[in-house]
Specification:
This protein is mostly beta strands. The chain folds into two domains: 76 residues, no CATH class; 70 residues, no CATH class. The protein is built from two helices and twelve strands; from the N terminus they run ββββββββαββαββ. β5 and β6 form a beta hairpin. It is elongated and about 80 Å long.
Length: 160
């Protein structure tokens, strides 16, 4: 055992009790705990599933030490990151549905709607011109301006 700053470090310990509270209610999220570099220091990780005040208590069963941590999660810290990550996945063409296409007289695409869905199943339920909302992450409008045949001048995709 090593003792730094009054905290006893025990290598290989697995006897921890973790209590996670979200806005004064016990959370169903199960944090993970893992030892860092086999030196008796541990990392606790969890992903908040909502905004609000989070409180975590960790009890080390081997010596009864109690550690408490508080987190204040705002809209900008989780929901925007999650939404942004989903949009990025969609924009790299994962679970997208392109419809409402319009073409010029030469058969070149001039506009379309691009919808991003959270799963393959929701994407497969989408229909041309439909208004499906289950699993919908974002809707984009696509517009192309052609300079000449097979040579576009501008291509624009914006979120609606």
């Amino acid at each position: 055992m090593l003792d730094y700053d009054g905290v006893t470090r025990v290598h290989g310990e697995t006897d921890f009790d973790i209590l996670l509270i979200h806005d004064n209610a016990v959370s169903a999220i199960v944090p993970s705990i893992s030892e860092i570099d086999l030196v008796g220091e541990y990392r606790v990780e969890f992903t908040p599933d909502g905004i609000g005040f989070w409180h975590m208590e960790i009890s080390a069963g081997y010596n009864g030490d109690l550690f408490a941590f508080d987190y204040d999660v705002s809209i900008g810290s989780t929901e925007n990151i999650y939404t942004l990550a989903q949009r990025i996945a969609g924009l790299v063409h994962e679970n997208i549905f392109i419809d409402m296409t319009e073409y010029d007289l030469d058969g070149q695409l001039i506009s379309a709607r691009v919808r991003i869905f959270d799963s393959k199943d929701h994407c497969n339920l989408a229909t041309d011109g439909g208004s499906e909302a289950d699993g919908l992450i974002g809707t984009y409008s696509l517009q192309t301006i052609w300079e000449a045949l097979n040579k576009y001048k501008t291509f624009k995709q914006v979120i609606d």
